[in-house]
Each structure stands twice: as C-alpha cells, then as structure tokens.
Amino acid sequence: MRVVLDTNIVIDLLHFADPRTATLRRAIDGGAVQCYVDQPCLAELERVTAYPSLALGTARQQALLAAYRRWVIACEADGVEDYSLPLCRDRDDQKFLVLAARCHADLLITRDRRLLSLIGRGRSPPAYGIVTAEVAAYVLTQGPPS
Fold this sequence. Notes:
This protein has 146 residues and is an alpha/beta fold. Helix content is 45%, strand content 12%.
C-alpha cells in the first residue's frame, strides 16, 4: 500500500509513539506500507521538529528525521502538475494532496481537520482516501470498508 503521511502523523509515530499509530508503524516496519515524501513535505517536518513545544533537542530531532528518511521514498515533481484535486482551506496542507496524487497513493493519513473535511459533502474526491490513523489501521488489518 502506498501512503503519504501528514506531518502530524509522523510526529505521532516517531515522537509520541501514539497507540493509534501502532498498526501503521508495524505495517511500515514490515514493508506492507510504502511512504512517500517530497521536499516541501520534508521541509515542513524539519521545521515542526524544531518547535519548542515538542521539546526535542538537536540529537533527538536529527534521530527522528533520520528514522523518517529511512521509511520514505522520494517522489518529487518533474514537471507541470495539473491534478484535479479539492482545495484545502489551509494552503500549507495542499502539498500533501498534491504529493498523494503524484505518487499514486492509496491513502493520505492525517489527523488534520481541514484535510479530513475534504471527504464528502458533495466534493469531488481525490483518487485516494484521506483517513485518520485509526481508519488506516482498519484498512491495513481488515481491508477497505465495503
């Protein structure tokens, strides 16, 4: 399964070890999930890991980023991108939608309300699911809901 992880999910996985991400972590470690990233998404993670509220020292910040880099496959833009995607109200989150389209992701995993709000409500959905870690865990263990 091909996935894009929003920054908050990466932090949940690698900093907080949030139990809601445990199934996802096992799937990544076991090779059942391939994670994709591009430079704009990686730059956001680098910026967020430096936030004082996370209380990561330089060594822990670098360790988190190194662990993430071992998981991900780069999927950079190689030309004009003209995807039919919904527009997220938070322009900073649009990059995750674009990356998921570019790398042909099955899922964009997030807990960001603005990204999750793009599901339904008469919107033209992207070709991939936008889901929480809990829904991703269900899909990984049970298959897509019918």
